[in-house]
Amino acid sequence: MSLEDTLYPLLKFYEAAPQPVKSLAGRAYRAMPASIRLGLNYTRFQSEARQVESWDADQIRVYQIAALRESLIAAGKAPFYAERFATCGVNPAKFESLEQIAEYPLLTKQDLILHREPMVNPDFDASQRLYLTTGGSSGVPVGFYLHKGVSRPKEQAYLEAQWSRRGYRVGDRVAVIRGGITSSKVSGDISYYDATRNWLIFSSSRLTLERLPDYVTALNKFRPRHLHAYPSSALMLARGLEQTNLKLEFALTSVLCGSEKLTPESQTYLEQAFDAPVYHWYGHSERVVLAGQGRKSNHLYFWPSYGFAEFGEPDENGHREVIGTSFHNHVMPLIRYRTGDFVKLSNDECGMRNGGSAIWASVSEVVGRDYEFLVSATGRRVSLTALNMHDRIFDGLMAVQFYQERKGDVEFRYQPGPQWSSASVNPMRSGLMKKLGEDFSLALRDVRDVEKTRSGKHQWLVNNGRAQIA
Q1: pLDDT value of position 354
Q2: Considering the entire predicted model, what is its pTM?
Q3: DSSP 35-75
Q4: Which of 22, 109, 294, 429 is the most exposed place for a label (fewest CB within 10 A)?
Q5: How far apart (Å, rounded) are the C-alpha atoms in residues 16 and 173?
Q6: Is residue 357 scored above 50 in pLDDT?
């Protein structure tokens, strides 16, 4: 078990503490060896991420067959999967080739909503589980369990390995603009220092032209080597600098952009604006599959040792859904999980060669929605990505949706499921308002179904374009 996972439930208290307390506790924590803070699995996955780039196709196949078999066996111990596997007539112990995975049933987000607890491997008790939720952009934030001491150290090791392709080194100073909560007041603090990682955490929702000088001053004082931001936040900062006489008085080594779609045109603009390479990747809260830009290409390459990626049948535009099976999370494996994300496959193999002949599944484009924002009464734009919740306040809901016609006024529509409790309404309101801020008025509306597009797809935000003006 890693110390980080043990302390994770206390994270909200750390973030709410006064800065001197955070700095003192954070420096003491960072002074500990990584093997204590992050656990031995962090070192294991660091090594694995370095080695896999030199593996050939046979080595990848052997690894994936073994990892899939382990995940399937762990899943088969859970009542939900045991019943499904029996119905399909499959036996995880006899899994011997990658082609056999097609014999197993697909898993949907609806399954997670309705059957989460029966999907848990009974070999692991509650102390070995870490509860999180998805972001909710495809319908509703969905709860699931990670494997304590495994899932999060693995994620960090692989992310750091990806970022190293653009110059990142463990311990580098990083400025983060990704939805951190610094204050609920419009005139409140824009940042706080996280001494546990030597990161300066900025609020993405306070980034306006009026407050841009505060951001630039803080950045110039901190002088980070890397900017880690939502693509929308990085674009706001770049455009703000372009429209003013303000400048960054230091050189960035890289701009790290994840969690949102990034077009090639936007990436080129950011690289020119910051005079630094931009690194983009695709992943999700469930930690099923992970893909990042290559060393020599901006296509996205799926790590073959992180999880097993499949792709559904192409739609009318040639886009295919990402279907993933998780490796290493034996607490609650996700088997053939339909992510709801669509990609355009590429045939580029050269971008991930690193002295070997490894061939990785690659995509040229992740097909996602454009940047979506709620607009406050004072004109702040709050990215819906920043409203992701990672606690239980949405447990029991079948779908959620934001609706906005006027600046500052937001309606949050929610569709209750059979396990929804009315006692969760007030905590849900408090959690949303903490992220929105004082210049929003929030109404909650219980609905039978959320609004869909003509083709039946879920809409995370409905605003008819009115609230986005100026």
Answers
A1: 40
A2: 0.82
A3: HHHT-HHHHHHHHHHHHHTT--HHHHHHHHHHHHHHHHHHH
A4: 429
A5: 22
A6: no
